[in-house]
Specification:
Layout: E1 2-6, E2 15-19, E3 29-39, H1 41-48, E4 65-72, E5 84-87, E6 98-102, E7 106-108, H2 115-118, H3 121-135, E8 143-147, H4 152-163, E9 167-172, H5 175-183, E10 188-191, H6 197-204, E11 210-215, H7 218-225, E12 229-237, E13 257-260, H8 268-284, E14 291-296, H9 300-307, E15 316-320
Parallel strand pairs: 8-9, 8-11, 9-10, 11-12, 12-13, 14-15
Antiparallel strand pairs: 1-2, 3-4, 3-6, 3-15, 4-5, 5-7
Helix pairs in contact: 3-4, 3-8
The chain binds NADP nicotinamide-adenine-dinucleotide phosphate.
Residues 40-42, 123-124, 127, 147-154, 171-174, 177, 192, 216-217, 220-221, 238-239, 261-263, 307, 311-313 line the site of NADP nicotinamide-adenine-dinucleotide phosphate (NAP).
């Protein structure tokens, strides 16, 4: 089969399309014919070799994908060949024509959800769910700021928060992005590149601030986030690309919390909860993954160049084998 291989850590040009043997399923494992693979910023961080997690070389990148079951190993009872599924982790990598996954990381893909959309689920929707519900403990009737609402995680957070009965304010860096954020169900959208947009947010909340902030670029925003939180407010830090200065005093009168989020730290029970909730939302149509740029597998280099661009996100980027 064809797969992207990384022989050495480095820039996007390290992603090479090669011919490799297809995976064989061991006990409790499933081989999936990949129709679409999700491209996440973390795939680019790992490729540089400077990230906390460093795979053994050579390796095939990617955790997210959707496709059809090709083969199952001994002890797999939940799935059979031909079924439509999405996967949330692959030991062989998803930037390939086939990917191997443990059956616990394979989930049925509802008929109304396309393979491209299925590739947007694992990391983006899983992280948005974990940030909103498992870490920030967001509740119906609360107000949520999704700070960076136009990308993979942000669009998921907007849909999840809106479906759960929250008032959602999303941000994007362009007029197109703002339109897209409103289309995902936000009641309000602001431009995070515009002067004074957080004053606008305070007006929208009658000066009270927001109960929860889902923060996708904390190194830019955390200091100011703490000034627009309501009493007992929580910031869930999902993305950060460097240090930032905060005034700890801003947390005191509000008794505010800053809570870190790592999808990979979810327990097995939390993963089960997450994917049961996501499947329900996909089935009833409240969750509609938004697919942005699509590239053929052979153009993985371009995908990695673009995923790290500072602005212009439009939902989830996918690779098509
Ligand atoms: P993405 O699809 O590339 O989206 C990036 C988002 O950041 C876009 O909405 C972009 O908006 C927004 N952004 C740009 N400048 C901003 C600013 N000044 N303030 C607020 N937002 C801004 O990436 P993604 O997949 O959603 O991931 C977002 C971040 O979360 C990445 O850093 C990623 O590594 C991290 N992440 C962490 C975890 C975890 O477990 N903690 C899991 C998944 C992702 P515009 O393009 O419209 O400007």
């Amino acid at each position: 089969m064809k797969a992207i291989r990384v022989e050495q850590f480095g820039g996007p040009e390290m992603l090479k399309l090669e011919e490799v043997p297809g995976p064989q399923p061991g006990p409790e494992q499933v081989v999936v014919r990949v129709h679409a693979a999700g491209v996440n910023p973390v795939d680019a961080y790992v490729r540089t070799g400077t990230y906390a997690y460093k795979p053994n070389l050579p390796y095939t990148p990617g955790n997210d994908a959707a496709g059809e079951v090709l083969a199952v190993g001994v002890g797999v009872k939940k799935f059979k060949p031909g079924e439509r599924v999405y996967i949330t982790f692959s030991s062989t990598g998803t930037y390939a024509e086939q990917a191997l996954a443990d059956q616990s990381q394979v989930h049925r893909l509802p008929e109304r959800v396309s393979f491209d959309q299925g590739a947007a689920l694992g990391v983006p929707y899983g992280t948005a769910y974990r940030g909103l519900f498992q870490r920030a403990q967001a509740k119906p009737a609360e107000t949520v700021l999704v700070h960076g609402a136009s990308g993979g995680v942000g669009t998921a957070a907007v849909q999840l928060a809106r479906a759960a009965g929250m008032t959602v304010i999303g941000t994007a860096g362009s007029e197109d992005g703002i339109k897209l954020v409103m289309e995902q169900g936000a009641q309000h959208a602001l431009n995070h590149s515009a002067e004074g947009y957080l004053d606008e947010l305070m007006k929208l909340t009658d000066g009270k601030g927001v109960d929860v902030i889902i923060e996708l670029l904390a190194n830019k925003n955390l200091g100011r986030d703490l000034t627009v939180l309501a009493k007992k407010g929580r910031v869930a830090v999902i993305g950060s690309r460097g240090p930032v200065e905060i005034n700890p005093r801003d947390t005191m009168p509000r008794e505010a919390d800053i809570r870190g989020v790592t999808l990979a730290s979810a327990s097995e029970a939390e993963y089960r909860e997450m994917h049961a909730a996501l499947t329900a939302g996909l089935e009833n149509g409240t969750l509609r993954p938004l697919v942005g740029k699509k590239f053929p597998l052979a153009e993985a280099v371009r995908a990695h160049e673009e995923i790290m661009q500072p602005s212009g996100a439009r939902g989830k980027m996918v690779l098509l084998p």
